[in-house]
Amino acid sequence: VYGYLEMPSNRSASTIYQFHNCRILKDGKLQREDLWIRDGKILNPEKLFFDEKGYADVRIDCKNLLIAPGYIDVQINGGFGVDFSSDVDNVEQGLSKVAKGLLAYGCTSFCPTIVTSPPEIYKQILPRIKLRDGSSEGAGVLGIHIEGPFISKDKKGAHPERYLRKLHQGWADVMSTYGTLDNVRLFTIAPELERSCDIISQLAKRDIKVSVGHSSANLSQAEAAVKAGATCITHLFNAMGPFHHRDPGIVGLLTSHKIPPGVTLFYGMIADGIHTDPAALRIAYRAHPQGIVLVTDAITAMGLPTGSYKVGQQEFEVTPEGRAYVLGTKTLIGSIVTMDKCVRHFLEATNCSVEEALEAGTLHPAQMLGIAAQKGTLDYNSDADFILLDDELNVQATYIAGELVWDVVTGSHDKRVVHRKSIS
Predict the structure, then answer these.
(1) What is the pairing mode between strands 66-69 and 71-76?
(2) pTM
(3) Could you say which of 87, 272, 297, 407 is catalytic?
(4) Is the pLDDT of residue 423 over 90?
(5) DSSP secondary-structure letter at 113?
(6) How far apart are CA 20 and CA 58, in angstroms?
(7) Residue 297 catalytic?
(8) pLDDT at 107
(9) b/e code 12-37 from CB counts within 10 Å (16+ = b)
(10) Which pLDDT score is estimated for 196?
(11) Which range has highest mean pLDDT (150-159, 273-282, 313-322, 395-404)?
(12) Rounded distance between C-alpha atoms, residue 400 and residue 107, angstroms
């Protein structure tokens, strides 16, 4: 697909990689520019040339491929036979299996999502999900996304009703449910619940991003949640009240004039062609293009064939058409889509630019989580987590911290394998 050429050594102690003959996504545009890497970071070549008098140790011919930041999935329940919310005996192994599997789809970072469960399950699972950097062993774990049990009974979707909870005691209910909020990055809550705004405020003070969802909230309740510190919407359109012209509900946040100054509202969209009609996807995107965050909401059957499985406390089946339903019903339980497919479907459904489609799966989730200084861009000094794509946005190679961790020819790389070839 592409080739390596070793250059004569230079004065830098660390190996410097130059990716050339490529188009890189930078400042919202695909630009004909080389990408330089050193010590796992994007390197400013001007500093290298003029301050250090250095040059590349290894030049990599990208054969005119695109280079984009690695995809970031902020809502993923499992995959490859693993369910983060129920595999209490194999939490660490399950996490590693999914992290490794995601590399083939260009996903370099993710938020494992824990759905509505009884307190004893949270208390067994949450302490064992640790933040970790990506590597050849798999995509990085950015933190936990908690989705439930403080959600609406009427908009529970596939969440088991018997485990839903209310906030009778406020913060005490939160802590008695989860035991710990260490390593929690994102928290979904229904804003119409009593005391929810107080909980949102307390979560925001702890630097946990709050998302409204699985909710029947009207627009004023949703706006109150944003005023209290919520900055996201969980899978827009799914598991929420329908848009109505006199009370648009949570959907109305996309064009609300009551969003506090300086706050960007982000909203997740499951762009699998099943959860959301392409017309709804277009409406949301055109109303608020800066806020769209593509998510998979993928479940244990991602990467598995048709059959019956379990997510959290709920059994489900995957149909030959690629739909995942609660067993014996027509209630969608999640998707089996991957991030690369979400980006391609979003591009096709909205007719947006390639750059906008890529940023919906890279820059926007990083901004939503408050980590855009490190992830989601190819800016100088950011983490060198990136992917090589063909013009149809099929993933050809995945890099984490500048290391090749997967490519379409050989698959996963357990350690860096540098193929040194002469390049004409």
Answers:
(1) unpaired
(2) 0.93
(3) 297
(4) no
(5) E
(6) 11
(7) yes
(8) 98
(9) beebbbbbbbbbbbbeeebeebbbbb
(10) 98
(11) 395-404
(12) 10
Alpha-carbon span 132 to 261, nearest angstrom: 33
* DSSP H stretches of helix in 5-79: 45-46
Residue 208: C-alpha distances to residues 74, 131, 148, 234, 352 (Å): 13, 14, 15, 15, 31
C-beta atoms surrounding 255 within 10 Å: 11
The DSSP 8-state label assigned to residue 170 in this structure reads T
Q: Is the distance from CB of 413 to CB of 405 less than 8 angstroms? A: yes
Query: What are the φ/ψ torsions at residue 200 (nearest 5 degrees)?
Result: -60, -45
Name the one residue in this structure whose structure tokens are 């011919």.
61
Q: What is the pLDDT of residues 165-201, one digit of tens each?
A: 999 999 999 999 999 999 999 999 999 999 999 999 9
**CA-CA distance, 217 to 155, in Å (whole number)?**
10
Considering 330-344, 388-402, 403-417, the range whose residues carry the highest mean pLDDT is 388-402
Structure tokens at 314: 């709920």
Q: What angle do CA 235, 366, 1 make, to 5 degrees?
A: 100
Residue 400 to residue 324: CA distance in whole angstroms? 31
Look at residue 3 in the predicted model and tell me its pLDDT.
Answer: 65
Burial readout 308-333 (b: 16 or more C-beta within 10 A, e: otherwise):
ebbbbbbebbbeeeebbbbeeeeebb
The angle subtended at Cα 291 by Cα 288 and Cα 295, nearest 5°, is 120
Structure tokens at 338: 């991957």
CB atoms closer than 10 angstroms to residue 74: 29
Is residue 4 predicted with pLDDT exceeding 80? Answer: no
Ramachandran angles phi, psi of 116, nearest 5°: -50, 125
